[in-house]
Amino acid sequence: MAAPTLTTARLVLRQLRADDAAALFAVLSDAELMTWWSSGPHQSLAETEAYVTRNAEEGQGWLCWAITAAGDDSALGWVILMDGKPGVGEVGYILRRDRWGGGLAREAVACVIAHGFTEGRLRRIFADTDPDNAGSIALLEKLGFRREGHLRGEWETHIGVRDSLIFGLLKDEWQKVETQFK
C-alpha cells in the first residue's frame, strides 16, 4: 500500500519515490547528519538510489513519506511508519540539515503520528534513538513521547556499538497534546 498524501500548513507528505534519490543524496551523504543514523553517510548517488528505492517499495511493512514543502515537490527528508505488533508502529525520520530549527520535522512527524492513530488504528507508536542524539530526543519529548527504556549495546553502526533509547506514545496521550500540532 502506498503512503497516502498528508498535508499540513507548510508541508505535503507524499509517498517516497525512487526519483527522490537525487534530492535526498544531500541528506544521506551529510556525515554530521548521518552520525546517529543506522548506516554511515552515502558515498555515491548510486548508493542513495538503491537505499531510497528499497525504502520506497510498497508492501514491506511500512509507509514512507517524502517531506516536501507546499508548492515544491523536492524531497527534504522523510518520515517512516513501520508495522510492529498489531496496533503498534515505529516512527523514524530524517530531514536536511539546512531545514533544521524551523519546526518542519516536528510538523511532519506530528502529521504521521495523527495518521497512525486515526487511519492506522494504532494504540501505540514508539521511536528508537541514540542516547547522544539530543535533537531527536527533544523532538520526541515535544511530541509527548515518554522514555520507556534504555537498551545497552543494541546497535552495531558505522560509529561502533551503540545504546538505544526507546520512547513511546499512546493514543490517549497523543489526544491530550495533538491540538498543539495542528
Automatic annotation (TrEMBL):
It comes from the Bacteria. PROSITE patterns: GNAT. Residues 11-166 form the N-acetyltransferase domain. One of its GO terms (molecular function) is acyltransferase activity, transferring groups other than amino-acyl groups. It holds the Pfam family Acetyltransf_3. This is GCN5 family acetyltransferase. The lineage of its organism: Bacteria, Pseudomonadati, Pseudomonadota, Alphaproteobacteria, Sphingomonadales.
